[in-house]
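Predict the 3D structure for this chain.
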Amino acid sequence: MALRHLLTTPLRALMTRLIAAWAEPRLIEPAPGALELESSLPVLYVLPRPAISDSWLLAALTRRHGLPLAGGRRRVGQVDVVTCLALPALRRRLWRHRPRAEAPFRPLIEQRLAEGGQEVQLVPVSIFWGRAPGKRFGFWRMVAADSWQFTGRLRRLLSVLVNRRSVEVHFGAPLRLGDLPGAGEEDARLTNRKAARLLRVHFRRVRTRVLGPDLSHRRTLIEGVARSPEVREVVEALAAEGRPSAERLQRRALRYGREIASNMTYPVLRFMDGLLRRLWNRLYDGVDVRGLERVKALAGDHTLVYVPCHRSHIDYLLLSYVLYHDGLMPPHIAAGRNLNMPLIGPLLRRGGAFFLRRTFRDNRLYAAVFNAYLHRLISRGHPLEYFIEGGRSRSGRMLPARPGMLAMTLRSFLRSANEGHHQPLAFIPVHIGYERIIESASYQRELRGGKKRKESPLDLLRVCRQLRQPFGRVSVNVGEPLLLASFLDGEVGGDWRDLRETRPAWLDEVVPRLGETLCRRINAAAALNPINLVALALLATPHHAIETHLLERQLYLLAELQRRLPGATHASLPPGTPAEWIDQALALGMVQCRAHPLGDIVLADASQSAQLGWYRNNVLHLFALAGLTAFAFRHQPDHNLDDLQELLAPGWPVLARELMIEPPVSLREALFAMLETLTELGLLARGETGWQRRMEPLDAGECLDLLSQLMQPSLERGYLLLTVLLDAGPGMLTPEALADRGRQLAERLALLSGRDAPEFFDTRLFVSLVESLEREGWLWRDEERLVYDEQLCEAASHSRRLFDPTLRHRLQLVTRQG
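Done. Predicted structure below.
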């Protein structure tokens, strides 16, 4: 044994040096310095299976990063152990399975039981040479990457040669020997088995997080979907109705399956990782990612459904890249069939996209196939991604959630619960914030009434022409995950767990509430950046021009408000100073600067102002309460807390729903905190009976007015809508007629006031406003006509006090002339 040890030590040292020079780990998580190892205790590393290449790489990494060495042997008490251990593998033979060997912790456990021996830290380590998500890929299946099937020696050798730059190392939290299950028991053998079981669960969770569940062959999956009981039931029903024969319908179901199903392949994932890394480096100055630790805490034992906001076609690629780059399995992405075009479609499909039609309400067979496919993905734990807004937001606002995919996900979850083999499901809200988007020109054209162009491969060439332009940075913020089981417990009680149906009566009520909750959580993770901060301040000025020093003061105010009273739970601020933010906006061509002897002026022309409106709307909700409070002081110079609450309370829930923010538990407490903060920032002064505007210095009054302008468009829309409703009388207008009339008046007001902002009179805003008034009980329907009572009249009359006489006169003039 000693001779063998002497012979193998030089070989081990040589191979460790060779593999250290060859392999370039792409990801080490967590950083070696963050392992929180106790320096006084021995450290033993544990691998999920015997793999000599893994032990050599681990020895090289521990030496490079100053960790306790993983190579060789060490003395722990009276036991001589290898510092890099491995759980035993199940050895397969053609005719039988050999019993699994015993885990290597038993001598340490026996020593500790007998002597109360020295404590030991076990550090589990998972090493992935590439990342193949458990699927057959021909040659790549043999050499490319780790998958759910353990590798042989030849395949591992080829994998080490091929994947030298695609290595991922995942360290687990240190586990002390005394913390092992049953550490105080006298049966060391049983404790050893429990320790091995605990570590195998950990390794399986890491493997699931990184590789995702084992994938079936695509053809097998499609055939299973087409022959599933729910699809066969629809086929038989349609055949009985005199439709095409059952055989022809079955072939059509297979065709639908091929049209829908993704074909995720490791070579394409790896190719797209390299391609997108170059694209981001060329297109953007960097990608800032926040909150992924919330995902990693759930990824091992939850089905993850990513629900990002939809701002750009880049969203599809960006989130998958971020997840892959951070050691998480990229999701299967629901994409519109319009993207299934030549060249682009096959690439997206192999990157994980599955395609769906815009609507399939009248196609029962397609709906059955799609539902069966989605259920297969969810029930097997595959991560998903879809955009609950449906399409991209042309206005920059968070759009109301559409119920389709949410309802199908919820029904699949209930079905899995009924079948008794489901795992927890978590929605992951994600906010993606851009300093500049590539679709800016097309969004402005469509907001002005232009027709949306059909996507084509030529769009890729148009994007390539823009690669030389600056686009700033991108932020990917992960919000608070929503556990679906807990959400259902709160909405319908625990009885849903005993249901034997997937379409319960409460489904139509719960799905919209689920959508609203997710929209609020996405908005709660909004990313403030230099462009939307400058847009918030500059567009609040009458002519979109402002002195540089006043702009810097306003940017400082907005940032301080967010720091002291965050408008959302997980919102983020950009680094740097207000002056640097202005420089960034100038560098990206979003604003202009005119030199002047009395001080430089920052301004935006008509085209720039229209673009800035999109970025302002991304984050406007973060300053809803601050803007509304400031607006109350615009016409009335002083308020006490009681009067302010009485003035703002009626319209606050409607405004909060329009902007998709979570209202505070107590509006009174939130108003008090806001008043105190505005006082500390020098915008208000505390008087004997309440708060009042500051007359000096003049900048304070200007900053307060600019802050109040943030909410003026929303308040004006509400004023116009209520005026139309009250003038018509109860029972005279349908919801559609009221929304359309309000939109027309808003468009007229925009033209008369020189406001070139198409999103101000967006039809969806007025439809949502009518729905909000219904939800809050101000309106209700009588034979599809809207009716109300004196309570609404009193609230509207009371809220008019918010507007100064000049603004009120202008709004009344527009409604009368209209």
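Confidence is low (pLDDT under 50) at residues 1-7, 133-144.
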